Amino acid sequence: MNKSDLSTVLAKELNIPLRKSEEIVDVVFGTMFNALAGHDRIEIRGFGSFEVREYHGYTGRNPKTGEKIVVDGKRLPFFKAGKELREKIDESETPS
């Protein structure tokens, strides 16, 4: 599901115009984006939490040449699924 699909489902579920549902989805994701950019943590009970994790730099190796290279540290968003989401996904697995 992409952002457009989410807007369409929201419009149908709430019986609102598509343009309005697109605005709602944009506001929600924009707010989340700004919170993570400001290093805030986002917790949505039952769904999961988002946070920014910092990874330190290290010395790596170019696999082709064998040359040592310095990999800078970075900050990346991290998502941890909530208990209810994990359980819902687990119960929806089909046996192989």
UniProtKB/TrEMBL annotation:
Similarity field: Belongs to the bacterial histone-like protein family.
Protein name in the entry: Integration host factor subunit beta
PANTHER family for the chain: DNA-BINDING PROTEIN HU (PTHR33175), INTEGRATION HOST FACTOR SUBUNIT BETA (PTHR33175:SF5)
Range of residues in the leader sequence: none
Entry's Gene Ontology molecular function annotations: DNA binding; structural constituent of chromatin
Keywords from the UniProt entry: DNA-binding
Pfam families linked to this entry: Bac_DNA_binding
